[in-house]
Write a structure and sequence with these properties.
The complex is a heterodimer of chains A (329) and B (107).
Chain A: H1 2-5, H2 11-20, E1 22-27, H3 28-31, H4 37-46, E2 63-67, E3 73-77, H5 82-99, E4 127-135, E5 149-156, H6 158-164, E6 174-176, H7 179-189, E7 206-219, E8 222-235, E9 253-266, E10 271-284, E11 299-306
Antiparallel strand pairs in A: 2-3, 4-5, 4-11, 6-7, 7-8, 8-9, 9-10, 10-11
Helix pairs in contact in A: 2-5
Chain B: H1 2-25, H2 28-34, H3 37-46, H4 52-62, H5 80-90, E1 94-99
The chains are: A alpha+beta (329), B mainly alpha (107).
Amino acid sequence: MTGRASVFSDDRVIEILTEEFVPVADNCSYTQSQKDAKGEFFRLIAEQGHYAGRTKPTATRQGLYTATADGELLASINTTNVDRVLKMLRAAIDKWQTEHVDGGAVTVPAVYEPDARYRRAFPEGGMTLRQTMRDLPRSGDLTFDTSRHNFDHVWLTGAEVAALAPTDLTPGTEYEIPPEVVRRVAQFHLVDQVRGEAPAWRTDSIRKAELTLRVEEVDGAQVDIRLTGQARLVQPPSDRVNLFSSFKVDMERGVDVQLAGFLVYDTLEQRFARFDMVATGSRWGATVYNFRAEDLGPAPIGFAFALPPPTPGNLTPPKFVLWDYFRES
Amino acid sequence: MKAMAVGLAGFAVICGVAAGQATQGHVGARQLRESVGQMAVIAAVDAEVQSENQFRTVHRYVMADPTEEKWRRIPWEPDLWNGRVKAAEQDKPLFIWAMNGDPLGCV
């Protein structure tokens, strides 16, 4: 997360990446293991980079790489220091300009057979929501820093989006959100990852999850819809211990939130023009990587959702899409 | 009691202004977070976000403000293979931001 605020918020880096490169953001924890053309291409580049020549294999290939489309490394580094990144980018451009003489000669097939274990394709006709999560201010300590935040994306199938559309436009009409959507939001998107990653909830951790829609007002093709709901998730500790460090892997954790939302459905275009939702309440407990050991709570947290602009970057998959994210409804 | 009610109403008015600024000038959310908005957010959450004004206050507080989203100005491609195809077509080098987790999402 540090890279977003440091390296990739620097005007010089933004300009160079926009003008001189095709910038890609990749989840290498999947790509480095994929047994397909994409995985091979990534490993080809990464093994020429800053992890090249290791005598002991390590599990990570994180970092910043520059390469040609045929897989020749130009330069790489793993840092959040802006000056070092700029130096690397300039070295890459120099190498590209002096050594890249067969420009345009590379032909890359547009499609390949992807490794089915890592298939993360956006559902046809579906909808994505951008999720932002953040600690909320604390009444007992108004100096508490709430600047840390994290993102995720919610994916809904075309059938689920259709099921969220109102059929009876009479103001006051209430209807339920499909249980599968409620489960997905609760299990995978009400997870405290404000400071770092945490596992999704187990299905049996969902103690309560309810979401209701109510038609508020109709103005031409626009239908104003109000969303209300609540969710409570509690997961007991697994009692697993890291045998090498004696570190206890987890403890009881939970969230208890109220949900509210304001939606606008366009009956002519048959799509949602607005899908703003928040879940607010409290969280408690910690996991190995979410940096809550010193802040066990209960403490206030907020999850916000909205339709994002239709850019390629907003088709980034949900974090838990390879879990049982989509089930047969 | 009256003073407290006036105070909360004042916060609501201030936050309404901040919310409008956020839509137009993209500065409201950060102002909300850094100054007057803290008490308004606490009040809205305590009231279980009943009104649309309370909703806007909390929603904007949680969502990232433009300063926090500056990194999105880069035209990121989230799929390495699509990026490779574009690089070949445009005769440009690739830049790959590789992380354990989705750099544009949850990481």
